[in-house]
Amino acid sequence: MAYLQGFTPTLKLGFVFSSLVSPKQRHPLVFPSSKCGFSLKFNDGSFKFQNPLIKGTKSVELDRFVTSDDEEEEEEMGDGFLEAIEELERMTREPSDVLEEMNDRLSARELQLVLVYFSQDGRDSWCALEVFDWLRKENRVDKETMELMVSIMCGWVKKLIQEQHGVGDVVDLLVDMDCVGLRPGFSMIEKVISLYWDMGEKEGAALFVEEVLRRGVSWNEGDPQGHKGGPTGYLAWKMMAEGDYKGAVRLVIRFREAGLKPEIYSYLVAMTAIVKELNEFAKALRKLKSFARAGLVTEFDREDVELAENYQSELLADGARLSNWVIQDGSHPSLHGAIHERLLAMYICAGHGIEAEKQLWEMKLVGKEADRGLYDIVLAICASQKETAATGRLMTQLEFASSAQKKKSLSWLLRGYIKGGHFNEAAETVMKMLELGIYPEYLDRVAVVQGLRKRVHQNGNLDTYFKLCKSLSEANLIGPCLVYLYTRKYKLWVVKMV
């Protein structure tokens, strides 16, 4: 006999089945928790029902806690549930035929418990899938039943991973799940990747994704334009979240070069990973240079510089390849702006001014306007590399800009010249700013004056220095000053008031 203890609003359903012979060994099996709260426990304790026709040598107790609005405090479990288990265990008829015949005699809770019963070790798990398929076709899959079946599936997958089964077995299970119409509101493929990842099986996660791509298993693509979704992109994103940027890039490229077809979104994730890797690499270089200036490490030699440049070049080449693949695979035009945006970020991190400027105009052509701050950063990079033509093109953007924006952009231009050591151009920029009524920052003015002073000692050219001092004095940014020049040939000092 099956029994039910009813409470309002919570019901506890306990079912105990036993064979004629009760074993002494205990085999606990608990599935991942869900809102349904099912748990299965094998035991050799008391039992309420005996039937020699039910297969198995172990007794099984099924406990379930569910919320309910049913006001009845107690109800009897029908005999239909036990008969259904008995008929399904015999396997003489199709599960759908058995359930169709007993449809009116089985409640929703009884059908859920049938699923739980056949999800145990030693039972016919395919029967559980067929029961769910029948429920779906009969439109009897409610939210609770769906959560239960998803919990059962996750338990099966987790067990396969723990027992070191091949990724092919895991993919087979997902295919079976799809065949019976088990489609939860999230990607089961992503869930499996997370299970591998959380259990420390990172290589297993990569092999699983590779098998999914090889078989062409479908997944939730997200929106129709391909902006989201897909196993490769999801795994690459998880790798990137842990700081393994280069690993994420290698993963996507490896799958593509192996003849597989990763989703377009994964290429964008890999390009983002390249941006982050270049940014971290640039930070590391700056830190090393500061250590070298402090005498903590040796200065970079030619070989070190070449290694750094080659590493950057390889990353940029990978980024260019990924962007080409996005376009080759027929991506939606709306993605083209995202491609150029990532390429722009790559070239900025690598300090490649000309290439970065090109991406700014490419973004304009596809209708995606870059932030004004990015124009200023590229302007500074081009100025530091003394790319006169590129700097001139970018400066045309300032014709109709506000005073505040002009000051900001000209300050970036000035700092670019200072960083590149181009102090004549920096002085001209300061004088241009003063003509427009814009006062450069104090530290910028000092850097330019000191830079020009060093140049005077090297080449004796005073013209630019005089002009700058005069402009600063007229703007009341410096007081009157005396300029001293000593001519060794004539042993003569020349003094001029500026």
From TrEMBL:
Name used for this protein in its record: Pentatricopeptide repeat-containing protein At2g30100, chloroplastic
Lineage: Eukaryota, Viridiplantae, Streptophyta, Embryophyta, Tracheophyta
PPR repeats: 406-440
Keywords from the UniProt entry: Repeat
Organism encoding this protein: Pisum sativum
Keyword Ribosomal protein recorded: no
The keyword Repeat appears for this protein: yes
Signal peptide: none
PROSITE patterns assigned: PPR
